[in-house]
Amino acid sequence: MDMLRPQSKPPSNDDFTTLPLYRSAPSLEVRLEDFELYAIDRLRVLKAISDGLSRGKKPEEMDKLVFDLWKANMRHPLASEVINKDIISHFVLRLVYCRTEDLRKWFLSMETALFRYRFQRKTAEVQLLREWKFLFRPHFGSVKKSVNKDDLYCDFCKMRRHTGHLPTNYMICKAIVFLFLGMFLHILHILILLSSHLKWTSTIREDEKDRLTPIVEALCTSYLGPDYSQSKEFAEISIKDIDQVAKSSFPLCMRHLFEKLREDHHLKHGGRMQLGLFLKGVGLNLDDALTFWKAEFSHKVGAERFDKEYAYSIRHNYGREGKRTDYTPCSCQKIISSTPGVGDHHGCPYRHFSEENLRAALFRMGVNGSAVEDVMEKVRNRHYQLACTLTFEAIHGSTYDVGVNHPNQYFTDSQKILKAKTAYDKLNQPIDRYLNPVPKFEIWYRIWTGTVRTGRYRPVRNGIQNIANNPLITQETC
């Protein structure tokens, strides 16, 4: 396995500048648990890169983002295993994303972006040029340190392919970056096609159908965040508060289901599952959930029929019936991939609504002007989670760099922002509102009757105008 290690220092447990070339699979024994966990850690990095590029982050922002992501996700307790984790995770994801053309395209794009940001670190650049001897062999000992790194050597195409040398003032430059990116992408594209046709189709899918195949097929659609099976950030919500929080903190998909339930007093199975598990995740306990659903469904099917046909599924969602599984709320990926039928209201509005209906729904949420056009642009490009993120930012008036990946994440972060704003508003209220929260008409009445004390508690029985202008009026002590 070809790899690039900086020679000036040993690898650390978050080594970013050691850059493998991934041209051949390593001969390593990997535990099944590590097989999946390493791939998930790398997938977090690639998906965050995808989100950052889709949001139009600047190059310097992306460079810092990738560096922080790598340190956070690709660490290992043993410094010597960091390189192995990098290599293993790449080849596992190559196997995951080799199966269809769309998966291959996304994987190639994200791996090339990751390679570019890692390549731009100086140590990786120099080591890579030393490693790929089949291109050229420069004299590194004669490179002048005083030369600016951004100096562009435009005549590098005239160098000899096998035995020629670069000029002594050669420095790594943008043109060389693009040269190696093209080479890396070309090689990786060939290797991922070989993985698809020779390894996955002919060998692994059948031979490992009980062990590796389920992991490989699930990884590309897996949700990587918290499961939100229990509300941990805030106290349980009650039925009397549910309308208020639905208006202020529900994402569009859940708000639409909630409004349709209030309007029609009924939801089909997909809608009940999507909304019911979401309400469970935001803190609605089982007793309140049964009361809430029964109050709505009784308008249409009656209380007796509800108890017979619908109450069981609600208790089942809470792990009180059947296998007693603690079901988790649906993630954005699962909601987007759902296929609602006629009469269904579940699914992702950004994907399943028409443009006219989506604009109307955004307007009802308070999204107007250019923010609507920004959301619609993301929808047209099929970036549905980014569209939801822009909706969150427009409603709450703040940036949301982490992006929306789960409806319950939307709710939790919305509540955090609203509670922070409420606390800030309280801190900035005039102090006399806390010292004397008495209605103005009552204050004037007490001034007239002489029951308000001022200054050093001198009783006041006349002089209304003087007292009204006196800044020393204090809390009533009568």
From TrEMBL:
It comes from the Eukaryota. One of its GO terms (cellular component) is alpha DNA polymerase:primase complex. The keyword Coiled coil does not apply. Coiled coil: none annotated. The chain crosses the membrane at residues 168-194. GO terms for biological process: DNA replication initiation; DNA replication, synthesis of primer. InterPro entries: DNA_primase_C, DNA_primase_lsu_euk, DNA_primase_lsu_euk/arc. One of its GO terms (molecular function) is DNA binding. Pfam families: DNA_primase_lrg, DNA_primase_lrg_N. Residues 243-411 form the DNA primase large subunit C-terminal domain. Keywords: 4Fe-4S, DNA replication, DNA-binding, Iron, Iron-sulfur, Membrane, Metal-binding, Primosome, Transmembrane, Transmembrane helix. Its cofactor is [4Fe-4S] cluster. Belongs to the eukaryotic-type primase large subunit family. This is DNA primase large subunit C-terminal domain-containing protein. It comes from Erythroxylum novogranatense.
